[in-house]
Design a protein that fits this description.
Histone H3 K4-specific methyltransferase SET7/9 N-terminal domain, 2 domains, 3-stranded antiparallel β-sheet, 26 strands, 36% strand
Length: 420
């Protein structure tokens, strides 16, 4: 069921993208053939929130592709800073950087034609223009990753729309308000397995309160996606509660993540001196989310080993640090009191052990409960009962003694055997 759901959803999304690209090209060909048809037009610079009296052609670079009739219009002295770590949304708060559309010699956009809009935060929007606003099936991207797809009528979101977070692949699905936001009490978050779900109340894609659900069917109706989810009937309630800088790790530290608890468990590690480790309770395919690594936030530059007297004490104090991608200004840590699963088990990624021959790697996701956190993702098929490992990536010059010894065993020892 998981594979079937995931494939069906992936195929539908790809099909919608292909449909738009075909219409994008076809639209301009047809427009060229119907020049005598009366159409309503607006000046392209209105999309940049520039009025006619403020427009200066020297502030734009316009390039025409003679083969397609498409013009690329770039606003000069306007720079792109790609940064987007949340669920996709219909509207961008960033400035418009450039557009690709068909534009007449006197700067008019073709009415009812396809258009591509690119913003300074690295997102883009593919839709149609009607009376100067979006109208029709609309797709939003961050870089090349689809992050939002829905139907827009006169600039307002309508019906069931799909929002996606590009790093981890989870989606939010359900009815949207006129701003294209998932706000309501029957919204669904679906984990990357396309099976496990949280169903309940959301406000502007933020989880207010939800219960555990299960995806029962993904199908199309009137050429649009529909997803059916059955409530599990369990009593647990989940809400958005990211960690903070004051020691809060979760508002419910003993409420396990339902996806994580369905595929992994904690047992004594098979690695010598490894303490507890993570084991697969079912086969985990290559590329799949295996575990979630939440923690208390600390600002960059904060050194948690400042009160330690020796290198080994420092290594121990820093042993549960994990850095976020470079666009964040904080790192995560599991304080000592939360390292025991009897005190914290909302996520279990901090229990993954190191190996120089790993079967997983660290990645990132925006989680509906924890916000943007690190994850453990399988880099190969992990069989049921196998332990999960990542490469910690320490510097061999400054690292714990156990790390050097393991390097000698797994790397230097292997090299020595091969030479013999």
């Amino acid at each position: 069921m998981e594979k079937k759901n995931r494939k069906f959803l992936t195929d539908w999304l790809l099909n919608k993208e292909e449909e738009y690209e075909k219409e994008f090209t076809k639209d301009f060909i047809q427009t060229n053939e119907n020049k005598e048809e009366e159409i309503k037009q607006i000046k392209f610079y209105h999309l940049f929130d520039i009025t006619e009296d403020k427009y200066n052609e020297n502030n734009f670079q316009i390039t025409l592709d003679e083969d397609t009739g498409l013009s690329t219009i770039i606003k000069l002295k306007c720079w792109v800073w790609p940064q987007y770590s949340q669920f996709g949304r219909l509207k961008s708060n960033a400035a418009l950087h450039h557009i690709i559309a068909r534009v007449s010699e006197d700067d008019y956009l073709e009415e009812n034609s396809c258009i591509k809009l690119y913003y300074t935060d690295g997102t883009s929007c593919f839709s149609k223009i009607k009376n100067g606003i979006l109208h029709g099936d609309t797709l939003r991207y961050f870089k090349d990753e689809l992050i939002w797809i829905g139907q827009v009528v006169d600039g307002k979101g309508r019906g069931n729309c799909l929002s996606r977070e590009h790093e981890g692949g989870g989606i939010i699905f359900g009815q949207v308000d006129e701003n294209g936001e998932h706000t309501g009490d029957n919204i669904v978050y679906i984990y990357p397995d396309c099976k496990t779900a949280l169903i309940g109340e959301f406000e502007q894609t933020n989880l207010i309160e939800a219960s555990l659900g299960k995806v029962t069917c993904i199908y199309t109706e009137n050429n649009w996606i529909n997803i059916e989810v059955r409530d599990s009937g369990r009593y647990e309630r989940y809400s958005y509660s990211p960690s903070d800088y004051d020691g809060l790790i979760s508002n419910n530290p003993l409420l396990s993540d339902p996806y994580e608890s369905s595929i992994i468990e904690i047992r004594n590690s098979g690695m010598k001196g490894g303490g507890e480790g993570i084991y697969a309770t079912k086969d985990i395919p290559c590329g799949s989310l295996a575990s979630i690594y939440n923690g208390v936030k600390y600002p960059l530059g904060c050194f948690l080993g400042k009160d330690c007297d020796s290198d080994e004490e420092i290594y121990e104090a820093l042993s549960y640090n994990i850095h976020m991608p470079q666009d964040e200004n904080f790192f995560l840590d599991i304080p000592k009191k939360f390292r025991d699963v009897s005190n914290y088990c909302a996520t279990l990624g901090h229990k993954v052990n190191h190996s120089f021959k790993p079967n997983c790697e660290f990645s990132t996701m925006f989680h509906p409960r924890f916000g943007r956190v690190r994850t453990v993702v399988a880099t190969q098929l992990i069989k049921k009962g196998e332990e999960l490992f990542v490469d910690y990536g320490y510097d061999l010059i400054r690292c714990p003694e156990w790390y050097r010894e393991l390097h000698k065993t797994q790397i230097e020892g292997t090299a020595s055997k091969n030479m013999n």
